[in-house]
Specification:
18 strands; 2 domains; about 35% helix; alpha/beta; single chain; FAD/NAD(P)-binding domain; D-Amino Acid Oxidase, Chain A, domain 2
Length: about 475
């Protein structure tokens, strides 16, 4: 796992979100010795915190204990693009093929509902997280992206979700946001944007108010399965152990650093650049008043958001996969990828040419082999997990928390009946095959994006890289 950072100033440098969370980042005390709990959670990010929050709301008598290697929000929860997305990264078609039309509909309805659930909880707990439900805009920038827009719209119609979306032409897109080269877009109403650092740090404080205990700078070295009711599961550290009636593994990409889970996810780095505040004059030129989240139809993935203090965030996934699924602080920044992202900002918004970029950061996200996340709980071993969001974790983690709380408490409902519950993704290939395949796909998609933008001709969908990356 990542090396420990030494002090609050070091943690603030992790991302703009943690720097501006308005929270004291001094680590909470570490665990020393052995303790017992009702529920022990590895990882104080969104998944673990939402799980604890739901457990404690339903049963305030529970003793819920966190073990966090760094500080709450250090991982993807404090570094993401701020999207509260109403869908998974897995497409409707993939979900329908795997779970049937009814299963796909149940999953997508539940994830869409999580967008509002996040907003409701933020309001309930008084967390000032800059939450705004402004929708999403997926833009075709150039003729080469129009076929992908058409396929996106047809997919929405096939899945029955088109009622929540609008297909916009170039003029309709410009009425919302004026983007260079935009020939059309799909607008979705069920998306929101949030300040991730304020949310995760505020959620940690809310969990503590409800009785949760968070131990920080406490690395889990081993997970001990139980054999309930006689042998309880446990989380072991270098300095102690927590035995509990249930253990939740909520470390997302960092779970790959535990040997039993090493191939369960692929840690892919997503990197971000953030502009200095945009002037009022430039905002008048650009528009973007509803703070919609933005993306295009590039194969390599891009994502944008507008912060509450008037900056533009541009993220992408061009950073190279590291052999052996390595995760290190040095990988949070990649000069080539960050340089490309800066160029993209000016390409999308020419009026911003020459604008400063005050912050760059990145971090690993967890990708399952089939792109489909899982919420699992084995009642015999007492071990549960929520993982595999592939970058859509802000909303999906909220859903995971409600599902896991229901599974642990034995509360059967429509969420615990979702097809994602106890779904098993296949393991990733061993090295060096994993590295060869992922690196080939990454580089091929970047070349395809560059070629299609240069020629104006869309990708065929038949290349090996496109078939591998299809989701």
């Amino acid at each position: 796992m990542a090396d420990q950072l030494p002090d609050p100033a070091g943690y603030a440098a992790t991302s703009y979100w943690l720097e501006t969370a308005g929270d004291d980042l001094t680590p909470r005390p570490a665990l020393r010795g052995e303790i017992d709990a009702d529920v022990a959670i590895l990882g104080a990010g969104y998944t673990g915190l939402w799980t604890a929050y739901e457990l404690l709301r339903r049963d305030p008598s529970l003793k819920v204990v966190f073990l966090e290697r760094e500080i709450a929000g250090f991982g993807a929860s404090g570094r993401n693009g701020g999207w509260v997305a109403s869908g998974l990264n897995a497409s409707s078609g993939r979900l329908a093929r795997r779970f049937g039309q009814a299963g796909m509909t149940a999953i997508e309805d539940a994830v869409a509902g999580a967008v509002d659930a996040v907003g409701v909880a933020i309001a309930r707990e008084g967390i000032d997280a800059d939450y705004a439900k402004g929708g999403s805009l997926t833009v075709a920038r150039g003729p080469e992206q129009l076929p992908a827009l058409e396929e996106h719209w047809q997919s929405l119609e096939r899945s029955g979700r088109a009622a929540h979306y609008q297909r916009l032409d170039a003029a309709g897109t410009a009425e919302r946001i004026r983007i260079e080269g935009a020939l059309g877009s799909v607008y979705g109403s069920q998306y929101a944007v949030v300040h991730p650092g304020k949310l995760v740090r505020g959620l940690a404080r809310a969990v503590e108010r409800h009785g949760g205990l968070i131990y920080e700078q406490t690395a889990v070295t081993d997970v001990e399965a139980g054999a309930l009711p006689h042998l309880r599961p446990a989380l072991r550290t270098e300095g102690g152990r927590v035995r509990a009636g249930a253990v939740v593994l909520a470390g997302e990409a960092y779970l790959t650093q535990l040997r039993p889970l090493h191939r369960s996810l692929l840690p892919l780095y997503s990197l971000i650049v953030l502009t200095e505040p945009v002037s009022d004059g430039d905002w008048a030129t650009i528009g973007w008043q509803a703070r919609e989240v933005l993306a295009s139809y590039r194969l390599s993935v891009d994502y944008l958001s507008r912060t509450a203090d008037g900056r533009i965030l541009f993220g992408g996934r061009g950073a190279p996969y590291r052999f052996g699924s390595r995760i290190e602080p040095a990988f949070d920044r990649d000069a080539r990828t960050h340089g490309l992202l800066r160029e993209f900002v000016e390409a999308w918004f020419p009026s911003l040419r020459g604008i400063g970029f005050g912050h760059t950061w990145g971090g690993p996200l967890g990708m399952p082999r089939d792109w489909i996340p899982t919420f699992s709980f084995d009642r015999r071993s007492g071990i549960g997990s929520g993982r595999g969001y592939t970058g859509h974790g802000v909303s999906t983690a909220n859903l995971a928390g409600r599902v896991l709380a229901g599974l642990i408490l034995g509360d059967e409902n429509e969420l615990t009946a979702l097809p994602l519950v106890n779904h098993r993704s296949p393991n990733w290939e061993p090295e060096p095959f994993r590295w060869i395949g992922v690196r080939f796909t990454q580089e091929s998609l970047l070349r395809l994006d560059a070629r299609t933008a240069r020629t104006g001709r869309p990708p065929t969908g038949r290349s090996l890289a496109e078939r591998i990356a299809d989701h």
